[in-house]
Write a structure and sequence with these properties.
This protein has one domain. It contains 19 helices and no strands. Helix 3 packs across helix 11 and helix 17 crosses helix 19.
């Protein structure tokens, strides 16, 4: 919804004129918050699977860790880069990497070395299908060092201190350290890693402590309240000291982790009515990498039909299920078979989790 909204704004279509001001950012401008939530989930899953697979962080097999990450991430990532390169060479207007951002070669180098965010902060935004790779740059840079630090410090005080350091520095990474660069304030490494660190810390806590049912209910209610507050009143929060200091993202990640602990230790499972949302989560990596290949054609169709105002709701509502179906198909028929093939020689093919009921973490197509 965020990226459909951006296309509409770029085309100067005033579709929000009759929508209450409070609803607009809450419905269609929360993409950055969504990525922050994802980072927290990612940190929890990576740490919990590491603990289950190797017993402790100090025992992590660095080589196997990288091999498993490669099997999960690389097949679809490389295919997407290949398709993007072909579309750029064919001069499809929505996929051309402009010379001012360094051209195709520079974009490929940035993507493959996980610094798309640095390139954009330095030279400006890349086309939409390239731009989404910034979050992968942040996540994979964190996990490049995660097993090495785990081997050195285990799950002891130094490792916790490292995580707490990232959490404390996160708001500064979104404000003071950006020196006024708007893109870097949204996409810097340090400004995004507080959520991943909080997810890691949450996994450590969940593996060592069993919360009582009343405590879990308090955590769940508190986490939902925080998420509702930050997501529902984001436009007002930005103008407060919380927003100006960059704390809103950290608070959002804390709320996410509170919900995660409650869901994990109660072994909560979603009702059948939420199965479409569950599918989006399980295929989130493929949906995220591929959704702009859906958004662009749908928006161009909307434009070719004369930009009918009545078609805007249809544009939003069709982009989501089509992106979900496209991502699910890519995961089922390509990325997951490739993942299994690359993991075939590994004795650690099981994802594992600190969650006792394995069905809860049957997220076979998640980016983790």
């Amino acid at each position: 919804m965020n990226h459909v909204n951006m296309r509409l704004l770029i085309a100067k279509i005033p579709y929000t004129a009759k929508i209450p001001a409070l609803l607009v950012p809450s419905l269609v401008w929360n993409g950055q918050f969504a990525v922050q939530i994802f980072f927290a989930v990612s940190g929890f899953l990576i740490t919990s699977t590491t603990l289950r697979r190797w017993g402790s962080l100090s025992n992590v097999n660095v080589r196997d860790f990288y091999r498993l990450r490669f099997a999960r991430i690389a097949p679809l990532f490389i295919l997407v880069l290949l398709v993007l390169s072909i579309l750029h060479a064919a001069q499809f207007k929505d996929f051309i990497v402009k010379p001012k951002t360094g051209g195709l070669g520079r974009a490929l180098l940035a993507a493959l070395t996980f610094h798309i965010n640095v390139l954009e902060a330095d030279r400006g935004y890349l086309p939409g299908s390239w731009d989404v790779l910034w979050s992968l740059s942040v996540e994979e840079m964190f996990y490049l060092f995660f097993p090495l630090i785990s081997r050195m410090f285990g799950a002891g005080k130094l490792f916790v201190a490292f995580l707490l350091g990232l959490i404390v520095l996160g708001p500064f990474g979104r404000t003071v350290f950006t020196h006024g660069n708007e893109i870097w304030s949204e996409k810097s490494y340090l400004g995004s890693m507080d959520a991943i660190a909080l997810g890691c810390l949450t996994a450590l806590i969940a593996s060592r402590m069993r919360f009582s049912r009343p405590a879990l209910r308090i955590l769940s209610a508190g986490g939902v309240a925080i998420l509702t507050f930050v997501l529902g009143f984001s436009n007002r929060i930005y103008s407060t000291v919380i927003g100006r200091s960059g704390l809103e993202m950290t608070i959002l990640a804390v709320g996410t982790c509170m919900v995660i602990v409650s869901a994990a230790q109660t072994q909560w499972q979603s009702p059948r009515t939420l199965s479409p949302v569950l599918s989006l989560g399980r295929n989130s990596y493929a949906v995220y990498l591929l959704h702009m290949f859906v958004v662009f054609p749908l928006f161009n169709l909307f434009v070719s039909l004369g930009k009918p105002m009545a078609g805007i709701a249809i544009l939003f509502l069709t982009a989501i299920p089509i992106s979900g179906a496209f991502g699910a198909a890519a995961a089922r028929f390509y990325s997951e078979p490739m993942n299994r093939l690359l993991r075939k020689r590994s004795s650690h093919s099981d994802l594992g989790s600190v969650i006792e009921d394995r069905r809860v973490l049957h997220a076979a197509n998640s980016p983790v």
